[in-house]
Structures are given as structure tokens and as C-alpha cells.
Design a protein that fits this description.
Length: 513
């Protein structure tokens, strides 16, 4: 009788697990037609003319070294090139297109819609880039914009001139094909996203004075961000498009200790450097607590689950049971562990004056990327408990709180339009459809400056990343595929086109997309 009861209980338990795996979590059956078959049968080509223009844009050495430490001459040349190349947008469509210079070097294109009752949206990209560092590690000079049959190599291809170029070409193509849109929208091109953000701040202020801007009623903001990943999930062959619905916060803390000097022949123990070293070791050894399930990472996993194979699908569809196991698996790689917790990185350390003199001081700078469930104050308090040494004095160099989590799901107009446009422009194989999920942006973008404009802040770059692409962002041999640029052109074009709808009735979506 006992074993019979155990068998019944086990059968019920297993049935619950299987029910969740194969009934609750099922693949999205809504697969829409590609852009080649969409409204107007319109598809943009990344042809030789566009390639040459993109190469010219990449050749400007618009480097940001730090706040107010930029190659302003090159940034000015790049800004002027954009204004001159797209000058006909302002002259040919002067009745509804305006261009504004913001914060001296940034640009804002305004495209006035016919229906002033529709909420506007904003595209955002930036023209500045990070330094190329060791040029000997680059296959081609980072500002030559060398191209072969598959790639364009240059600093800024991925971050963020690829997005900038695709946005502007899509805008040009849309106006040429359709003229004045129904819905107002803006294209912001900032000059110091990598250091300072005065461009984005100026644009946010300017737009706050426009209709729907003063009370945060923009339909959405779309900035650079998470991408399309391939070959990153066990048992999964589908590409995964991640729309960043939030981004991590940023905090830099300097820890310092001061002590009396002395001679190295009669050392006191421990020295200032020794005390600091112990504190650094504690911070690196004791991770910040996991916030698994308290951010968008849970929705990302839920979105992927229906496409997994057994037994992984069974595990992922029952996170209520296997949550601790999943947390442990995520923690095994830095890239996945960063999704579930605030990260800690010691980035600077200094101390000592002479090899035979005891150091009077030592300091270290610690960088945190803060999970959406944490805050600057919370992490500072966690560090204090971890270090547990009042001799170390902390000073916050900078702090930017995590962004709010933007609304997402099929019931949210702006998110649903982005989701379906991704499917429309990237669908290749109906047997392995692209999976679109919300996610967390690990880095910082201009979008956090636009919280006054909209609660729907999304971060997405329409490019495919594989394993060997991840280290190229801010790294050596940055490059982009010709095929990605073509898809990027069509993505932004169809975001503009699809947002001319006033709402998204399902029947209309199936014919439009």
C-alpha cells in the first residue's frame, strides 16, 4: 500500500511537470511573412553605393577617451558629413522634416506626422566610438573600413555606426517611398554616448518641450542594445532575438586606506597594501547575491523554453522546482551569471612610493554593474558587510541606478510591433523560427536619459552575434556582416512602416507582416 501511494504521488508529480513542459509552454505559432512579401513588397538592398557611404562614416575617428576628452575635430567632420549626405531629407521634405543641432555636435531629425493624435516614437544611435587600443592586434587598421565578401572591419561597425547608418538609410527610403508618415517620429544621433551623455541630455530636454514629451507619453524609444544570438543555448538551433527591456545600473567606488609611514626593515603588519589586498580578495571571492527571478531574465528563459528539447525543456518549464539548479548553471559562465546578479570588477589599484618605505596609503577602484533588483545604496551596504573593515574609507566616484523595467508582451503595442518586425525581417526557416524574448542589457546606453519621454524604453541592435563576435564589441577586430547590414536596413524601415498603424488588430498584422 505504501509503495502504491508513492507511485501515485510520483505519477501525479510527473504529470504536472510534463503538463507545464508541453501544454503551458508551447512554441509561438504566429509566423509572419517576410519583408519581401509585406506591404508594398518593399525590401532594401545593401548595395555598393550604400557600402561606400557606410565606409566613409566608419573612417571618421570619432573617439571618446573620457568625459570632455574626445576627438572633437573628427566628431565635427562626421556630423557635417551626415548633415551633407542627408541634406535632401530636409530640403525635399521641408514641410514636415526638420533638423536640429543639439549640444553643438549631436543631431536630431524631426519627422512630423499627419495625425497629431498618434504618439510619436524615437530612434537613437551614437556616432562616437571607444579607442582601438593595440593596433597590432587588428587584422586591418581600425579606421580603414576594409571590406571583403563577408565583412566590413572597423571600429564602430557594431557600436554604433551600423545602427546609425541603417536608421538614416531607412528614414531616407521611407520618405522616398511613402512621403509624410501618419505618426510623428524622431531620429537622435548623439556624439558622446561613450563618455558624458550631454548629447542625449540635450535631446531629452528638447523633446520634453514637444507634444507628448512633457509628460512622458512617447509611444516608445528604441536605442542600441541586445542583439540576435545564434548557437548559444544547449539543444537549441533557433536564433534568439533579445529585446532589452531594462539595463543595468553602474557604480564606481574608490576604497582607500591611510596609515603612518615607516621603514621596510621594521615593517608593521599588515601594511596598507596588505589590508587593501584582503578587502579586494573578499569582494572578488564573495559574489553579490543572485537576483534570479526578480528581473527580465526569467521571461527570457520562459520565452526560450518551448523550443528546447527534452529533458532541458522539462527543467526550464518548471523553474519553481529547478530554480536553484538553473541559478548554479548560470553562475558557471560570466556572461550568463551577469544576467542574475550585480557584478563586481576591480579595475584600478595603487599604493606605495618606494621599495624600502612602508606605504602610507593604498586605493582600489571597484566597478559594479547593478541588477535591476538592486540599487547603489544596497550594493554599497553589501560591500561594507563583505569587507568588514572600518579602516577602509569608501568614496562613490559615480552612480547610475538601474533603469526601470519597460512593459513587454503581446498586449503592449510598441513591444509587439518590435517583436513582429523582427520576425518579419529575420525569419529564414519556418522549422527553426526566430525566437523573440525580453532581456536585460548589461551595458549602459543613451536610453536611460530618455526616461522622461516614455516608459517604453527598448534596446535592440538588429545584428546577429555568434560566439566569436561577443569579444569584438569594444574589442579587437570589430566587424559586421554585409548580410546584417541589409537586415538592419529592412528592420528599421519596417519599424517605421509598421508603426503607422493606430492599433494592432490580429487580422491586420497577419496580412501586413
Amino acid at each position: 500500500m505504501f509503495w502504491k501511494t508513492i507511485l501515485i504521488v510520483f505519477s501525479i508529480f510527473l504529470s504536472i511537470l510534463l503538463y507545464r513542459a508541453y501544454v503551458v509552454f508551447t512554441p509561438d505559432k504566429t509566423i509572419f511573412e517576410s519583408c519581401l512579401s509585406s506591404t508594398g513588397n518593399h525590401s532594401l538592398k545593401f548595395d555598393q553605393n550604400r557600402l561606400r557611404t557606410f565606409q566613409k562614416l566608419l573612417q571618421f575617428q570619432t573617439i571618446s577617451y573620457g568625459v570632455n576628452k574626445q576627438n572633437f575635430d573628427e566628431i565635427k567632420k562626421c556630423r557635417n558629413f551626415i548633415k551633407e549626405h542627408y541634406h535632401d531629407l530636409v530640403t525635399n521634405y521641408s514641410e514636415f522634416v526638420d533638423l536640429y543641432d543639439i549640444a553643438e555636435y549631436s543631431l536630431l531629425y524631426s519627422i512630423q506626422g499627419k495625425n497629431l493624435n498618434l504618439k510619436p516614437f524615437l530612434f537613437s544611435a551614437h556616432m562616437d566610438v571607444v579607442p582601438a587600443r593595440d593596433l597590432n592586434r587588428w587584422k586591418y587598421p581600425p579606421f580603414d573600413a576594409h571590406t571583403d565578401k563577408d565583412f566590413i572591419y572597423a571600429r564602430g561597425t557594431l557600436d554604433d555606426k551600423g545602427n546609425l547608418f541603417a536608421m538614416m538609410e531607412a528614414l531616407k527610403e521611407y520618405l522616398h517611398a511613402y512621403g509624410q508618415p501618419s505618426r510623428t517620429f524622431y531620429v537622435a544621433l548623439t556624439h558622446n554616448e561613450e563618455a558624458g551623455h550631454s548629447g542625449a541630455m540635450g535631446i531629452a530636454h528638447h523633446l520634453s518641450q514637444q507634444p507628448f514629451g512633457h509628460n512622458g507619453q512617447f509611444e516608445f524609444v528604441l536605442d542600441e542594445g541586445t542583439t540576435i544570438l545564434e548557437e548559444v543555448f544547449p539543444t537549441l538551433n533557433n536564433p534568439i532575438a533579445i529585446i532589452g527591456v531594462a539595463e543595468k545600473g553602474y557604480m564606481s567606488i574608490k576604497y582607500r586606506i591611510d596609515m603612518a609611514s615607516g621603514h621596510s626593515s621594521m615593517p608593521s603588519a599588515p601594511t596598507a597594501i596588505g589590508i587593501l589586498a584582503r578587502a579586494v580578495d573578499k569582494l572578488e571571492s564573495k559574489l553579490q547575491p543572485s537576483q534570479f527571478g526578480r528581473g527580465p531574465e526569467l521571461s527570457l528563459l520562459h520565452g526560450v523554453t518551448p523550443y528546447l528539447k527534452f529533458p532541458l525543456r522539462l527543467v526550464m518549464s518548471n523553474i519553481w522546482l529547478f530554480g536553484p539548479v538553473i541559478q548554479w548553471v548560470l553562475s558557471q559562465k560570466p556572461g550568463t551569471d551577469a544576467l542574475q546578479r550585480t557584478t563586481t570588477a576591480v579595475t584600478f589599484i595603487s599604493g606605495g612610493e618606494k621599495d624600502n618605505v612602508l606605504p602610507t596609503s593604498a586605493s582600489a577602484t571597484v566597478n559594479h554593474r547593478i541588477h535591476t533588483a538592486d540599487s547603489c545604496q544596497k550594493i554599497l551596504e553589501n560591500n561594507r558587510r563583505i569587507i568588514n573593515d572600518d579602516r577602509l574609507i569608501s568614496h562613490i566616484n559615480s552612480c547610475s541606478e538601474p533603469s526601470p523595467i519597460s512593459p513587454y508582451g503581446k498586449h503592449i503595442y510598441s513591444y509587439h510591433i518590435l517583436e513582429q518586425t523582427i520576425r518579419q525581417t529575420f525569419e529564414k526557416d519556418h522549422h527553426q523560427p526566430i525566437i523573440v524574448v525580453p532581456g536585460l542589457m548589461l551595458g549602459a546606453t543613451d536610453s536611460k536619459l530618455y526616461t522622461n519621454l516614455s516608459k517604453n524604453l527598448y534596446r535592440f541592435s538588429p545584428f546577429v552575434y555568434r560566439h566569436d563576435d561577443l569579444d569584438r564589441l569594444h574589442g579587437d577586430n570589430e566587424r559586421i556582416r554585409h548580410s546584417d547590414m541589409q537586415r538592419g536596413l529592412n528592420f528599421y524601415f519596417h519599424v517605421i512602416l509598421n508603426n503607422q498603424l493606430e492599433n494592432i488588430p490580429e487580422t491586420e498584422l497577419k496580412s501586413e507582416l
